[in-house]
Amino acid sequence: MGKAILFSAPSGCGKTTIIKELMRYFDCFDFSISATSRQPRGDERHGHDYYFLSQEEFRQRVAAGDFLEWEEVYQGTCYGTLKSEVERIWAEGKTIVFDVDVNGGSNLKQYFGQQALSIFVMPPSLEVLEQRLRSRGTDSEEAIVKRLGRSAEELKQAPRFDVTIVNDDLQKAVDETRRVVEAFLDE
Ligand code: ADP
Ligand code: 5GP
User: Fold this and answer.
1) Which residues, listed in sequence order, are joined to residue 109 by a DSSP beta bridge?
2) Which of 16, 35, 92, 179 could make a disulfide contact with 51, Cβ separation 3.0–4.6 Å?
3) Quick one: pLDDT at residue 137?
């Protein structure tokens, strides 16, 4: 078993942004590409950002036992961690980086135990989170309302994670994350 870094937070808190910065710094990182039944947005690519599956394909992969965990994060939209991603990344001797919702983060932490560092990315406030979701410009109004609807509940789960990083100033958040990850990898 290798090591894993789990990033969780409500949508729009900055997980993807922070992960992209860290991937440039840590050569040992490899990103676990999740499967999802949602459509690609912006410049997302199949097999790079996600494996984009139809609802039916997603159901078939669940029935085949291909997922380590999966969640219907938004009504009618599922996301899941493929066992094959974990096997692939550890076979290469790399550290797995996960970007999963708050429930998925708790479940994976329970599964990996001490092998994983679970990080909760916290927005400075719900108002700032809403602004960021809107200014990202990739989601419909309906998707933004769905995402915000879950956020307040999800933020209450932060104490269940090993570390909380407040993403106010991006550079500070990245530096702080880098420090806690370095300490974990040195253990
Ligand atoms: P998530 O992956 O958690 O859904 P993103 O990384 O997509 O969130 O970030 C949501 C939006 O907020 C993006 O437009 C991103 O550029 C912006 N953003 C992220 N971190 C910051 C920050 N510290 N300050 C200002 N904007 C930020
Ligand atoms: P988005 O649609 O913004 O890419 O992702 C929506 C939410 O689904 C985010 O909180 C993201 O972390 C989560 N997510 C992405 N992949 C997975 C996964 O494999 N499992 C779980 N449980 N959540 C995921």
Assistant:
1) none
2) 35
3) 86
Structure confidence at residue 136 as a pLDDT band (50, 70, 90):
confident
Q: Which residues of 110-120 are buried (b: 16+ CB within 10 A; e: fewer)?
A: eebeeebbbbb
Closest CA to 125 of 12, 7, 18, 8: 12
Task: Read off the amino acid at residue 35.
Answer: A
In short, whether 132's Cβ falls inside 6 Å of ligand 1 is yes
Ligand 2 centre from 100 Cα, in Å?
4
Is 41 touching ligand 1 by the criterion CB < 6 Å? no
Could you give the strand order of the β-sheet that contains 50-52, starting from the edge strand earlier in sequence? 50-52, 34-36, 77-82, 67-74
Q: Report H helices in 33-187.
A: 55-63, 83-91, 102-112, 126-136, 141-155, 170-186
- Indicate the top mutation candidate among 122, 132, 169, 170 to test ligand 1's pocket, ranked by most ligand atoms within 8 A of CB: 132
